[in-house]
Design a protein that fits this description.
Layout (H helix, E strand, L loop, with lengths): L3 E9 L9 E10 L2 E9 L8 H7 L3 H4 L5 H12 L3 E4 L2 H14 L8 E3 H8 L8 H8 L9 H19 L1 H14 L19 E6 L5 E7 L2 H7 L8 H4 L1 H10 L2 E6 L3 H15 L5 H4 L5 E5 L9 E5 L11 E5 L2 H15 L3 H4 L9 H4 L13 H12 L13 E7 L4 E8 L2 E6 L2 H9 L8 H11 L9 E3 L7
Parallel strand pairs: 1-4, 4-5
Antiparallel strand pairs: 1-2, 2-3, 6-7, 6-8, 9-10, 9-11, 12-13, 12-15, 13-14
Length: about 475
């Protein structure tokens, strides 16, 4: 099939490569079509094997009690894998576990992989199921050691031999080379052809068996980004974590996508869809509730000088008096206490301490004395503004609505994103939609993610403003 490959199988304590451990390894090295090495060993996982797994594999805690740890057998496994392609049935599972085990041993595993589930799908597209049990039944293969590492390795080898006899070595090599060239281990149960996904900007949605998406992501190259989730070296796992990538790979059934004209449109659409659909694995963008900010009174003698306001009470038109944007009241108070201590501000005036007369901070020399007449309210108010300056929300820099135009020359798609006071009002594609968006009066719904996108796009040093449309003069649109 290939000049040099190792057929490998693992038994483990469970399905999570981060928390679970390897209990058994079996490997057979093939060179130029001949078996040159065969090795198997039990492995002490260092954790208890769940009863369900014991019943499935027949490997119990007593059997592995005196077995070597993974780091002890790692050198032998690396020796077998040297210069070879790692072949396994659902290779993503085995490779994920090996990557984690080698990382714990401070070894960076780098090996090409080939999934025999995907190879079976290429060779036998007329069949729906390509699990090992289905293949064994279809080809009349039998073993007394199913779910033991060497027993499963021998079944894969027996199937490869039958496939070679049926299709010929050249066909098998060609199909295997195609899979290696893709450098991916696409989940065997994925029903959506990867080639059907356009390599354009947009948002992709991973679905399992349920009606709601598992995960929503965005990219300027949809197909490439989707493929990266299934790369053998788990390149996408840097953002999501290997365990989460593995769970998605096990649950995914289909991929949907929505094209945009550029990166900003993809960011806006991703943020909106995640908040609407609440995918299981999009934890960061889902956290939108309980935002709050400090509102500073314009009157130096007001008490307290700062009032905590929630998102519902924030008016994007008055951001010049708001400071912060915090995920919780606790976070807001922690930041304010830190600023008070750093700038010798009066905790009583800030509402951090009750009572009258000298505050506790002044008694220990950490307040300049607003509370006892040693500092004027005006001077303290000015120092408070300076202390809060870095936390001040940006005022909307335009007299009214603006649009940001994006155009994708490959698809000839143009999107115009309409904003007012940091709020995304609409994304339109033609003059009629634009006119309707400009004429429609709607409440401004503040969104932290949109705010941050726009601040970076419009106000960051060196930010490009190409494609910016001012709608104060309607004719400029």
């Amino acid at each position: 099939m290939l000049p040099c490959y190792v057929v490998l199988d693992l038994e483990t304590t469970g399905a999570n490569p981060v928390h679970d451990r390897v209990t058994e390894i079996a490997a057979v090295r093939m060179e130029q079509g001949r078996e040159v090495a065969r090795w198997s060993t039990l492995v002490n996982p260092g954790i208890s094997i769940p009863p369900f797994i014991q019943n499935l594999t027949g490997i119990d805690n007593a059997m592995v009690a005196d077995a070597p740890r993974f780091e002890e057998v790692a050198p032998r496994l690396l020796e077998l894998l040297a210069g070879a392609v790692l072949v396994a049935h659902n290779v993503r599972f085995d490779h994920g576990f090996l990557k984690n085990e080698f990382e714990r041993a401070r070894i960076d595993l780098r090996v090409k992989v080939l999934c025999t589930v995907l190879l079976s799908r290429k060779l036998y597209p007329q069949h729906r199921s390509h699990g090992l049990d289905a293949i064994m039944q279809r080809h009349g293969l039998h073993t007394q050691e199913r779910h033991r590492a060497m027993g499963d390795v021998e079944m894969v080898l027996a199937w490869l031999q039958q496939a070679t006899q049926e299709f010929g070595i050249d066909t098998l090599q060609a199909r295997a080379s195609e899979l290696l060239a893709s450098a991916s281990s696409v989940p065997s149960q994925l029903e959506t052809p990867i080639k059907s996904i356009p390599d354009t900007p947009g948002v992709y949605l991973f679905y399992g068996e349920g009606p709601l998406p598992l995960y929503i992501g965005k990219s300027v190259k949809l197909r490439s980004r989707v493929m990266s989730h299934f790369q053998a070296d788990h390149s996408a796992a840097k953002e999501m974590g290997i365990a989460q990538e593995m769970r998605i790979a096990q649950e995914i059934r289909s991929v949907q996508w929505r094209e945009t004209a550029g990166e900003l449109g993809a960011l806006l659409l991703e943020s909106r869809l995640v908040k609407q659909m609440q995918p299981v694995y999009n934890r960061q963008l889902r956290r939108q509730n309980s935002l709050c900010a400090w509102r500073l009174s314009a009157e130096p003698t007001a008490r307290p000088l700062l009032t905590l306001v929630s998102t519902d009470d924030m008016d994007p038109r008055r951001f010049d008096s708001l400071y912060g944007l915090y995920r919780s009241k606790r976070q807001a108070l922690e930041v304010l206490r830190s600023l008070a201590a750093e700038h010798a501000l009066c905790p009583q005036a800030l509402g951090l301490e009750s009572g009258k007369g000298r505050c506790f901070a002044q008694q220990i020399g950490k307040c300049k004395g607003l509370c006892c007449g040693l500092e004027t309210p005006e001077h303290h108010h000015l120092r408070l503004q300076l202390a809060l300056a870095a936390h001040r929300l940006k005022a909307w820099p335009f007299p009214g609505k603006v649009g940001l135009r994006e155009h994708d020359a490959r698809t000839d798609r143009t999107d115009i994103h309409v904003f007012e006071h940091w709020c995304h009002l609409a994304t339109v594609h033609d003059e009629a939609e634009l006119e309707q968006a400009l004429q429609t009066s709607r409440a401004l719904a503040f969104d932290l993610d949109s705010y941050r996108m726009l601040v970076k796009r419009l106000l960051a040093p060196g930010a490009a403003t190409s494609g910016l449309i001012h709608f104060t003069d309607r004719g400029s649109a």
